[in-house]
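=== RUN LOG ===
request id: a7f3
mode: sequence -> structure
chains: 1
length: 410
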Amino acid sequence: MSAVYSGESERHVPPEADVEWPLSRRGDVVPEVCAWLRENKPVARVRTLTGAPAWLVSTHELATRVLQDEVFSMSAMAEPGARLQYAPVFPATSRSSVQDIGNAGLREAVMRALSPHAVKQAAGGFRRRADALLDELVDEGPPADLRARFTDPYTVSVMSAVLGLSDDHGRLLMDGLDIAIMTVPRSFEGAQVNWDKGMALTRDRLRAPGAAEAPGLLGALARIRAGKGDQDVTDDDLASALNGLFTAGALSTAAFLLLAVLQLMRHPDQMEWLRAHPEAMDDAVEELLRCNLAIGDGLPRIATRDTELGGTAIAEGDLVLVLVEGANHDPAVFPRPHELDLTRRPGSHLAFGAGRHYCAATFLARTHASVALSAVLDRMPGLRLAIPVEEISWRSGWIKRTAERLPVLW
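=== RESULT ===
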C-alpha cells in the first residue's frame, strides 16, 4: 500500500501529508485521487492553506459518521485558536449554522422564511424571473454566458424574494461573495471592508421606515428589532443572520445550478430524456446533487474529544474534513458512481450534509434548481457548450468549484 498518492496527475505533496490539498478545482471531472483515498487512505493527512494539519475523510460510511456524530463540531470552529482550512475573511462567530442561533424568535423567523410553505408560495415568481432572463437570451441569440446572464441573476432574485430583499440589495450582496468566501492563507484588509459594507447595507434596511411591513425574513427581523419579538438580539445579530443566510444560500444554489446545467450538456442523452420526462425533475435533481462537485474544500468539523475514526486516532481539537465528492462517488453505496443516471434514487447522498447541521434550506435549494432547469429545458432546445469543455476556466481561491464563465449555444 502506497503511503502517499502518486497518480498520473500528482502535484506537490507537502511533508506529513498523504495528498495535496485542496484537490483539483475542475468542476466537471471527479478528482482521480478520490478513488485512491477511499481504497488506501480513507482517513488521510492533509495540510490546509493556513498550514494547519487536518484529517480528510473520503468514504461514505466515515463521512456520514463525522457529519452525524456530535463529537465532531462545526460550532467549535469559531472558538479562539481553532484549526482552520483557510484564513477567516469574515468574523468567526458568523460561521455558526441556523441551528446555533440562540435567540428563539430569530431562529423561528429564519426557519419560517425557509419553510416549504414559504418557498412554494414564492415558486411562481421564481419561474417568471427565469423566463424573463431566458427571454432576453433567446431574443439576443447565442452564444451567451449562462452564468452571467442566467444562473447568477436568477439566484439573486430567488434569494432576494425569500429573504425579503430588493433585487438591488441582493445584487450588492452577491457581488460581495467574490471576496466573502475566498480561500486564502492570510486575512487581508479588503475582507473586513467587504464585510462592513454588507453589514451596513443590511442594518440600514432593517432600520428603514416601514421595514417591519416588508415581506420575507427582512420584515420578520425588523419586527423582532421593533420589539414585537424577543429583545435579546442586536442590530448586528439580525444583519449578520440575514447576510449569512444570503451568502450560504446564494453561494451554494448558484454553484450547484451552474454545474447541473453543465452535467446535462455533457450528457445530452440524459438531458433529452429529462426534457421528455418533466415529471421526473425532482428525482433528477437528486442525482445531479449527488454528482455535483461544487463543494471543493470539504465540510469542516473539529473533534471535541479524543476519538477514533476508521482505525485512526483523532485527538481533541483536530480538524476533520469531509470529502463530499469522495463519499458521493463511493461505489459501496452508489453502483457505477461516475455515471449520471437520472433514474437513480440516490437518497443517501451528502450534498446537504447530515446530522445536526443538515442544511436547513434543502427545499429551497431543490426548488431553485428544479424551476430553473425546467425553464432552461423548455426554452433552450439544443442547449450545448459554445467552447470545448477543456477550455472552461475554473475559479481558484474560492470555497466552491465554479466556472468563471459558461458560454453556450442553443
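=== NOTES ===
The domain at 33-409 is CATH 1.10.630.10 (Cytochrome p450).
The longest strand covers residues 43-47.
=== END ===
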